């Protein structure tokens, strides 16, 4: 490893709550509900080999969280894990639609996640916000429904709206109304694009949705003019390198475009997406940036700072987070000078 990233202060702005379920917790849940998970969980790891199997595995894990208390436990467990590696801020992507589909109900689903956030904040000081997501492959009405739900919820922890799911379904324009509703409700906007689909999907998102952030967006690298546009507009990319390698968007970390995007002036950040499914964690993503991708400590700190600058929070909270972050970085720099 190039240098130890353990003590670095971290932030994450792209992680799906069910995708963050630690395998040990899923195993406990499976025992609690008498569910056989031997086909999807072995030796403390989730097992899948291609995208179709990943979806099956993901859904099976998600189905182990059935009550408000289960979601509180899941959220508290993940955020506590993040706080233990010096993470001060986290945005989690949630799908109220999923709560409805499992019979739990969107309100109880959201209430459980909020309880988990409060409990983790109380214990560790970690700040967290919720991004409601519509799932593209369930169709336009469901995505619009998710935006309407986020608007109606008027929950101070719900600060953003996203669209995830199968990128190849429909055109971005079909879903524009959902984003209009979310924008009018004062929510921050981000959208999954440029992961499965090429640069055109990022351009479509910019033209039609005008989000401040893009989930992944890495395949923008295939179009030089688009990269320039991202840099000029200051659009932030929520980059999840481990996820991209696990899903074969790129063959290895050396081929991953994070460095090229950063050097072209694009505002990039690091997140973990669905960490245990991709044999990763936010801690590992920071290690990968330092070792496999060769970023300097200052460059990684700059990406963390970008996450805080782009976070969907009120300005008081942002200033508090930035002050805390800058003080940590400065004290690290002073210590390094003293050691030298
Ligand atoms: Zn994602």
How would the blueprint of this fold be written?
Blueprint: E1 10-16, H1 23-33, E2 41-42, E3 45-46, H2 51-62, H3 68-84, E4 87-94, H4 96-101, H5 106-124, E5 127-135, H6 140-153, E6 158-164, H7 176-184, E7 188-193, H8 199-208, E8 213-216, H9 224-233, E9 236-239, H10 241-246, H11 258-263, E10 267-270, H12 282-290, H13 297-310, H14 315-339
Parallel strand pairs: 1-4, 4-5, 5-6, 6-7, 7-8, 8-9, 9-10
Antiparallel strand pairs: 2-3
Helix pairs in contact: 3-5, 6-7, 13-14
What does this entry show, briefly?
It contains 14 helices and ten strands. It has 340 residues and is an alpha/beta fold. α3 runs parallel beside α5, α6 packs parallel to α7 (176-184) and α13 runs antiparallel to α14.
């Amino acid at each position: 490893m190039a240098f130890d990233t353990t003590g670095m202060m971290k932030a994450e702005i792209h992680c799906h709550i069910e995708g963050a379920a630690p395998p040990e917790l899923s195993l406990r849940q499976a025992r609690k509900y008498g569910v056989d998970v031997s086909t999807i969980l072995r030796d403390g790891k989730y097992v899948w080999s291609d995208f179709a199997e990943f979806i099956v595995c993901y859904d099976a894990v998600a189905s182990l969280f059935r009550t408000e208390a289960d979601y509180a436990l899941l959220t508290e467990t993940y955020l506590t894990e993040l706080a233990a590696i010096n993470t001060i801020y986290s945005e989690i992507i949630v799908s109220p639609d999923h709560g409805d589909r499992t019979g739990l109900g969107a309100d109880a689903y959201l209430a459980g996640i909020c309880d988990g956030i409060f409990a983790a904040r109380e214990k560790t000081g970690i700040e967290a916000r919720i991004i409601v997501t519509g799932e593209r492959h369930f169709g336009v009405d469901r995505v619009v429904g998710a935006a309407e739900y986020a608007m109606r919820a008027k929950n101070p922890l719900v600060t953003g709206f996203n669209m995830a799911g199968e990128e190849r379904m429909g055109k971005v324009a079909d879903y524009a109304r959902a984003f209009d509703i979310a924008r009018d409700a004062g929510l921050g906007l981000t959208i999954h694009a440029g992961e499965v689909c090429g640069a055109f999907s990022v351009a479509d998102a910019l033209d039609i949705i005008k989000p401040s952030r893009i989930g992944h967006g890495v395949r923008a690298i295939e179009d030089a003019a688009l990269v320039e546009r991202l840099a000029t507009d200051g659009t932030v990319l929520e980059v999840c390198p481990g996820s991209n390698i696990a899903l074969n968007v790129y063959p290895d970390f050396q081929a991953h475009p994070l460095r090229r995007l950063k050097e072209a002036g694009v505002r990039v950040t690091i997140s973990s997406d669905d960490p245990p499914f991709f044999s990763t964690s936010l801690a590992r993503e920071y290690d990968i940036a330092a070792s496999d991708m060769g970023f300097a400590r200052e460059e990684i700190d700059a990406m963390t700072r970008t996450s805080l600058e782009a976070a969907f929070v009120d300005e008081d909270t942002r200033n508090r987070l930035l002050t805390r972050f800058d003080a940590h970085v400065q004290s690290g720099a002073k210590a390094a000078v003293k050691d030298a």
